[in-house]
Amino acid sequence: VAFFGWTWDSFDFFTVSLTIKDLAAEFHKSNTDITWGITLVLMLRSVGSVIFGIASDRYGRKWPFIVNNILFIILELATGFCQDYKQFLAIRALFGIAVGGLYGNAAATALEDCPEEARGIMSGILQQGYSFGYLLSTAFARGLVDTTSHGWRPLFWFGACPPVLIILFRLCLPETEAFRERKKARKSSGSVASVFISEGKVALKRHWLLLIYMVLLMTGFNFMVGGVG
User: Fold this and answer.
1) Residue 209: phi, psi to the nearest 5?
2) Which of 4, 1, 2 is nearest to 132 (CA)?
3) What span, in angstroms and rounded, lies between the C-alpha atoms of 155 and 192?
4) Considering the entire predicted model, what is its pTM?
5) Could you give phi then psi for residue 121, rounded to 5 degrees?
6) Which of 29, 94, 98, 162 has its CA 20 to 30 A from that of 2?
7) What's residue 57's pLDDT?
């Protein structure tokens, strides 16, 4: 379920990249103007990662993941019904928050109950969901864009459909065991909020150097991917 969630996060992100010329013609803007829709998504991903990261650690992996996918449905449909450039930018900005919220939760869902010996290969498999999403978006763009009288819009309308199945898939699965154990430990230690804050402080204090390294590493990877795109 984490793999498919991450895959569709990618699919929805690349729908704009694959329809830039069509969007520019629709809204009477240049291709560069349309790419601001992509820039806004990338700028607000960090906001989404913080919001949904905190929600995931406080309330569990299940319901924030489901809410995240509900937002995908709403915002992809809304993009498909945009009537002007300002609406497009506003909706894609909100979409950036949803995009940023998905991966951390998906990774925790997939990996925290996974045996430590298998986490390396399983995290690699999970990460490939992003490439798979791009392949799917390319294939469906060929089949849905400019093949009907609605032009580019069917690609976005279709993008809103599979998250329904992903939500149903997640509803059938329990909360992760690791989170349930952590929740019990927090309750026995007093205030859930105070324990949550203290855990965050300890994590930053002990692992701040590793955190900086990972930020720089992922910045490099995203720079290479964005450059090729």
Assistant:
1) -70, -40
2) 4
3) 43
4) 0.87
5) -70, -35
6) 94
7) 86
